[in-house]
Write a structure and sequence with these properties.
about 90 residues; mainly beta; 2 domains; 3-stranded antiparallel sheet; binds zinc ion
């Protein structure tokens, strides 16, 4: 049995789950954020607040800054939330 390591979308801490829990929902030990067990390097998409285009990032970049091709800078949101514009 192998393990899946990924970063919590709430606090950024490292979480480890057995691979049989892939896709299941667990709660972070630190911040209690409920989230799916997905390997940390998985890409996900969110909508640019500047141009409504789709941006793809790695989950481990959640909370980091990205710059869209439309020149809008924003913080990568958690899945299901809106990006926050930064200057
Ligand atoms: Zn957490
Ligand atoms: Zn854009």
């Amino acid at each position: 049995m192998s393990e899946i390591r990924f970063n919590c979308i709430g606090c950024g801490g490292e979480l480890v789950a057995p691979d049989v829990l892939m896709g299941a929902e667990i709660c972070c030990d630190n911040c209690n954020t409920k989230q799916e067990v997905i390997p940390g390097n998985t890409e996900y998409s969110f909508i640019c607040i500047g141009c409504d285009g789709t941006l793809s990032v790695l989950r481990e970049n959640i909370g980091g800054k990205v710059r869209c091709s439309c020149d809008t800078k924003m913080l990568v949101p958690k899945p299901g939330e809106d990006a926050i514009q930064v200057v």
